[in-house]
Amino acid sequence: MFSAIMDIYRHPASRRKWLTIASGVFITIALVAWYGFGLAAPWAPLMTIAAVLAGYDIALRAWASLRLRILSIELLVIVAAIGALFINNHWESAAVTFLFMLGAWLETRTMSRTRGALKALIDAAPVTATVLRDGRTIEVAAHEVQLGETVLVKAGERLPVDGEVIEGTAAVNEASITGEPIPAEKSPGSRVFAGTLAENGLLHLRATGVGADTTLARIITRVEKAQEAKAPAQRMIESFGRWYTPGVFVMAIVSYIVTRNVELALTLLVVSCPGALVISTPVSVVAGIGRAARAGILIKGGEHLENAGRITALAFDKTGTLTEGQPRLAEVVALAGQSKDDVLLWAAIAETGSNHPLGRPIIEAAQAQGHLPTAESLEEIAGMGLIARHDGYEIAVGSHRLFDHLGIGFSAEAKDGIARLHGLGHTVVIVARNGEVVGLLGLADMARASARSMIDRLHALGVRRVVMLTGDQRPAAEAIAKAVGVDEVHAGMMPDDKLDRIRAMRAEGLRVAMVGDGINDAPALAAADISIAMGASGSDIAIETADIALMTDDLGKIAEAMEISRATLTNMRQNLVIAVLTVIGLLIGVYTGTIHMAGGMLVHQLSVLVVILNGMRLLRVPKAARARVAVVRGERVAP
Amino acid sequence: MSNTTIRTTLRSDELSCPSCVPKIEKALLALPGVEKAEVKFASGRIEVEHDAALTDVDALVNSIAKTGYAAKPSAF
């Protein structure tokens, strides 16, 4: 019993909790006795006990600070509470100390929930790892795994280290790193990250990074550094806070000398900490950056948060972010009176014997039509195409150069078709049978289904110009850009050209964000107002250098980053307004005599709580984003 | 920096007002062998550079507890 009480006493948080509860109980008894039974006698002693209980911990802290020569808010509160007891205002003394403790307790709880977005990440890393040593499996602390050692991960376990799969397959949920809810298939050779979750299977990993040297640890460190980076507004407020508290202290003394009003002076002491003000911006920044990190978006500090919300132009290089990254059969053109199905079939018969990347989509499309016979003989002419024999026909499939080589001419109809497909940005595959061109196939890296809506979303957020700067050939780039609603395309660009484009846009007064992979685009990234690195989960350089690092190759995350940035800025402004109004309101209230000690403490603590709770709103995933996740999950279940 | 100086990261969940930052920092710096102490209010991280021979990690935690806050050592 005694040792249990000592445990509670030793742990500061639980000590405060029980002191607050005890103090509240005595206040309640006193109130019930007075208002319920009309008993006046117990009032003063009960309230005094309540004040002593709640004031005990405040006094401890005040004393600890005083020894370090710090004029703390606790000291002011305890002076006010003792003062109130001396002027026989027991109720005020009890209420002030109780409200201070209760408020601090609630503030601690809510504040730690605001920091909670990151706590989930920190907790994602398991404490222990199962490793294979001398042919036996043993359990060791996760940070004591040796590099190169084999680590075993069972279904349902989180990965303890960064590594490479050497044996086994599993679906690994990488949401903790990428924010992506769909698990990724991992097989030997795949890179895996500490803190991700193996949903099934059994993996043997070779450890490549442990402890602080994992992608997860680096992300956490980066996010914390970002949260700690003080925004200009915050620095201003902190210097204000430094003279505000002593200032009010002096005001209290002066007010007492002038008015001889003890209560007024004590009330001033109670409201002298600009709690809501000093906490207003950090709360929003911590919550906003934490919320973004959970979605796989690393924003490197309050300053970038501000810039990201105001982007008016977005330049990007990665054609791959808009496309599926694999060619697909976009169009079949039948010539010389043939049917489209036959053209496709002949092309596919020839392609069955080859493993050219352009062959696969053709074969897949033909297989979807029905039975696909194999060629009887096949000749591959490197860099040009294929010549196959089937059912007495000679089929030639390939590029323009193959037909020049074979001496097969093009009809006017064929030439028109080729020019049209080129104009669409397609790669053209020509099909001939027995020396006559019978059809054309247009292959293209198609736009992702989601690309259009991503660009629309950026426009809706006020990005006036979405610009593609690419080294690709013009028609291909333009076709994709047009399909998804990109405003401007600059193709065939060298790194210096990109830099010039960024400078030109900035000269026009646009706030330019540049999306790149962090290394090749370094000059353009440096010239932009804000640099964004994509697909950063594997690249430490990208995480370190960019202003915003997106863990996946998803343009939609840019819109999300902008939305979070704006919400955070709005939130910060709301908090500042609440805090400033509270400080002004309290001072006016105190001097006009409408606010006394207990009321002053109540308003002060409430304002701090309101500011924290407002910041916490940022942690909620907006409805639209939740719906998107649900859709993605639904699709996963369907097949 | 002597060669026994190490860097320890602690985390506290209880920092609810930035006014506790100087309190904890000063309390840590008052310990023997503590060369640097930084409290980050936003993340709740406490970074200390200290001579482990003079002041170990437990002593850091105790000193923070005396100012009224609970903190735990953390790997990063």
Ordered list of secondary-structure elements with their pairings:
The complex is a heterodimer of chains A (639) and B (76).
Chain A: H1 2-10, H2 12-37, H3 43-67, H4 73-86, H5 90-114, H6 116-124, E1 128-133, E2 136-141, E3 150-154, E4 162-167, E5 170-173, H7 175-178, E6 184-186, E7 191-192, E8 197-198, E9 202-209, H8 215-228, H9 232-259, H10 262-270, H11 275-294, E10 297-299, H12 302-308, E11 313-316, E12 323-334, H13 340-351, H14 359-369, E13 377-381, E14 385-390, E15 393-398, H15 400-406, H16 412-423, E16 427-433, E17 436-447, H17 451-460, E18 465-469, H18 474-484, E19 488-490, H19 495-507, E20 512-516, H20 522-527, E21 530-533, H21 540-545, E22 548-550, H22 556-591, H23 597-616, H24 623-637
Parallel strand pairs in A: 11-18, 11-20, 18-19, 20-21, 21-22
Antiparallel strand pairs in A: 1-2, 1-3, 3-9, 4-7, 4-9, 5-6, 5-8, 10-22, 12-17, 13-14, 14-15, 15-16, 16-17
Helix pairs in contact in A: 2-3, 2-5, 3-4, 3-5, 4-5, 4-10, 5-23, 6-11, 8-11, 9-10, 9-11, 10-23, 11-22, 11-23, 12-22, 13-14, 22-23
Chain B: E1 5-11, H1 20-29, E2 34-40, E3 45-51, H2 57-66, E4 72-74
Antiparallel strand pairs in B: 1-3, 1-4, 2-3
GO molecular function (chain A): ATP binding; ATP hydrolysis activity; metal ion binding; P-type zinc transporter activity
Subcellular location (chain A): Cell membrane
InterPro entries (chain A): ATPase_P-typ_cyto_dom_N, ATPase_P-typ_P_site, ATPase_P-typ_TM_dom_sf, ATPase_P-typ_transduc_dom_A_sf, ATPase_P-type_domA, Cation_Transport_ATPase_IB, HAD-like_sf, HAD_sf
| Class based on secondary structure composition and strand pairing of chain B | alpha+beta
Which strand order does the major sheet of chain B show? 2-3-1-4
**What is the correct CATH architecture of chain B?**
2-Layer Sandwich
Which two protein chains have the largest interface (Cβ within 8 Å of the partner's Cβ), and how many residues from each?
Answer: A-B, 42 and 27 residues
- Annotation, overall tally of beta strands of chain B: 4
Shape of chain A: elongated
Strand content of chain A: 15-25%
The CATH topology label of chain B is Alpha-Beta Plaits
